[in-house]
């Protein structure tokens, strides 16, 4: 498994497995505790696995948690997604930096999103299943949403946005969120 730092976001990593492919399809390891430890990620910290299914054009995000935040491993297990991370940690050397990465079921690459970063994605295929491994139990009182189409974020969504949740449609812009956000840098 190859691990690459994501330069635009301090502490973010892309884990790229090496699938074994034959006439049946493929097999690959999508998580390895020793590889996570090698870049300073505690594999035992993850307490929740979740899965979302989205249709082409759907945008989910931009989401983060206030307080201690949450770190997550994100992988597109089927289909393809355009994944976005924005660093909102005031003390970070990449504060307000943005990274985009395409994740797909073909590669099974996993993106590590550090706590204090906003995250979102757009489904690029008719069906896209996205898996999340999260390091804190969900607390809805800490949910923070930033408008996915905020001009300050300037996310270059590759497709027309076909659908979002009501929460995402009504989300405030980045400037408003930054005025009220309390995210503790790890």
UniProtKB/TrEMBL annotation:
The keyword Cell membrane does not apply. Pathway: Carbohydrate biosynthesis; dTDP-L-rhamnose biosynthesis. The active site is at residues 63, 132. GO terms for biological process: dTDP-rhamnose biosynthetic process; polysaccharide biosynthetic process. CDD domains: cupin_RmlC. It catalyses: dTDP-4-dehydro-6-deoxy-alpha-D-glucose = dTDP-4-dehydro-beta-L-rhamnose. Its EC number is 5.1.3.13. One of its GO terms (cellular component) is cytosol. Keywords: Isomerase. GO terms for molecular function: dTDP-4-dehydrorhamnose 3,5-epimerase activity. Homodimer. Belongs to the dTDP-4-dehydrorhamnose 3,5-epimerase family. Catalyzes the epimerization of the C3' and C5'positions of dTDP-6-deoxy-D-xylo-4-hexulose, forming dTDP-6-deoxy-L-lyxo-4-hexulose. This is dTDP-4-dehydrorhamnose 3,5-epimerase.
